[in-house]
Amino acid sequence: MSRETVTAHRWIRDDASSDLYTTLEDRGRCYLRRNLRALDQYRSHLQTEEADLLDIASAVFGSDRLARRPNGFTANKLDWARHLQVEVPVRNASFWSDRIVTDGLCQVLKELTDDTWSFTFRESIPSTPSMAQLRFRPAPGGVALFSGGLDSLAGVLHLRQAEKLQRLRLVSVSSNSHIGHLQLETFHALRKSVGGDLEQFSFNINHKYADTKPADPSVANKPSRTLKQQGRRQRARSFFYFVIATILARRTGSDRIYVLENGVTSLNLPISPLLASTRVTRTTHPLVLLSFERFIQSALNWPSFRVELPFLFHTKAQLVKPFAEQYADLIAKTVSCARVLNGPWCGTCTACLLRRQVLWSVGLADLDRGEQPPGGKSLTDIFATFSEPNGKIMRWYFLATLHHVAELLRDPNVVTSNPTVLRAAVGWAGARGLDASSVLSQFVDLHRRYAQEWKDVLRRASQQYSAVRDLLARDTLMESL
C-alpha cells in the first residue's frame, strides 16, 4: 500500500519578469528563472496554448525539484512516491481544466516520475508584455534533443548520415550555467567538425531564492535542504525538455522531435532490487515518450505529431562505434555524468560507468584512461579504485552493475520478467504498427548484446588491472571464458 507524501505548490506569475515563483514556509519565495518568456504579444509566433504549456512545464520542473523524498537506499519504496498538488497560472484555464487534457498531462508525469500529480489551473493574463522574442520561420529540417553527451553526439551524426537530415535544430536545456557551458562547447566542436546546417537553441531554467523572510517566522530556523541538494532531483526535467523541443518543432514546420538515446538507457532496467520505482529514472522511456506524444496530439490538436526514438534497439556502444575513430577528439568533449553540477564529472556513477564501457568497446580505452574533466582533477579510475576501503559507493555501483550483467549473460530473457519492459513492448508495437512479440525479442537481444560488450571489456580490463582480475577470479561472471 502506497504512503504518498503530499506536497502542494502554488505558482504565481511575477508581472515584472513573467517568471514564476512559489512561497516555501522555510525558505520564503523561490523563483523559477528562465531564459525564455511568455511572448504573448507575439501571438503569430507563439499561441496561447503553447505559452501556457511552457509555464506548466516550468511549474512541473519546479515542483518536482522542490518536493522532498526520503534519502538513501534504506528508504522504504512505499514512502518514495509523492502526491504533488500544483496550481499554475494560465491564460486559458477552461482549456487546461478539461479532463481529457489534464488526465493526459498527469499520465505523462506518472509514467515519468511514478508520482501522483494533480493540477489546478488559475486564469491569469500577464499584465506586462515580455521583452524577449524568439523569431523562427518555417523551414525544412529536424528538431532533436542535444544534451552534450555521447548519445546525442552520435545520434546527430547518425541522423545526418542515415536520415539525410543535414539541417538540424538542436535543443539544449540546462539547470545551471556550468552544464549550459559544457553543452555549448560540445555543440561548437560538433559544428566545427562536421559542418552543415546545425543550430543550437539553448534554454536554461533554475531556482533562485529571493531575499525575503519565510512566510511563517516560527519556522525560520528549522533545517532545510540546500538548493544544491534539491537540485539533484530533476526527474521531471525531461518533460520541460520535450515541451521546448515540441514548441520549436511546431514553430519551424516540423511534426516530430528526435530523442537521441540508446535503448539500454531508455529502458533502464534496475541494476539492483534496491534501485526500484523512481530511483530508476525514466527520462526517455518508451512509455513516457508515447504518453507525451498522445498528450501533445490532444492538447495542441496536432494528430501528426511524433516523438521519434530511432536508436531504441541500439546499445550505446553500437551508436558510437561507427564514428569512434574519425571523431575521437569530438567524443572526448562530451559529458555523460549523472552528477555533474558545478564541477568535474565523478567517474563512478552508472552513467560514467557506461561511458567507460563504451569507450573501451569502441577502441578508445586510451582516451578513457587519459580523460581529465574540467577543473584539472583526474577522472576517478573505477577499475583501479573500486576495491579501496574508502570507495564504498564506487564499489556498490560497480559491483551492482556487474551483478546485473552476470544475470543477463546467464539468461537475457530475464528482461521479460520486468513489467515495464512488457508494457513498453506492447505500447511501442501498438503505436508504431509493429508486432509486440518481435519488439520484445529485440529488447531481449538488445540486452544480450549489451552484456556481451561488458564481458569483452572486463576481459581486457582484467589483463591490465589486478583488482578486476582478482574480482573475476572470485566471481562467476567470466566463467565461460
Write structural notes for this entry.
The protein has helices at residues 48-66, 93-97, 99-113, 150-161, 177-194, 227-231, 237-251, 263-267, 286-299, 316-320, 328-331, 350-361, 365-370, 382-385, 392-410, 419-432, 436-461, 466-473, and strands spanning 5-10, 12-13, 20-24, 28-34, 82-90, 116-123, 142-145, 167-174, 197-209, 256-258, 306-308. The strands form two sheets. The protein has an eight-stranded mixed β-sheet with strand order 2-3-4-9-8-7-10-11, sandwiched between helices. Strands 1-5-6 form a three-stranded parallel β-sheet. The two termini are 45 Å apart. The chain has 481 residues and is of the alpha/beta class. The radius of gyration is 23 Å and the shape is globular. The chain contains 18 helices and eleven strands. Helix 3 packs antiparallel against helix 9 (286-299) and helix 15 packs across helix 17. Helix 5 (177-194) links the parallel strand 8 (167-174) and strand 9 (197-209). Residues 37-45 and 214-232 have low confidence and may be disordered.
Tertiary shape? globular
Q: Pairing-aware structural class of the strands and helices?
A: alpha/beta
- The span between the termini is 45 Å
Order of helices and strands: EEEEHEHHEEHEHEHHEHHEHHHHHHHHH
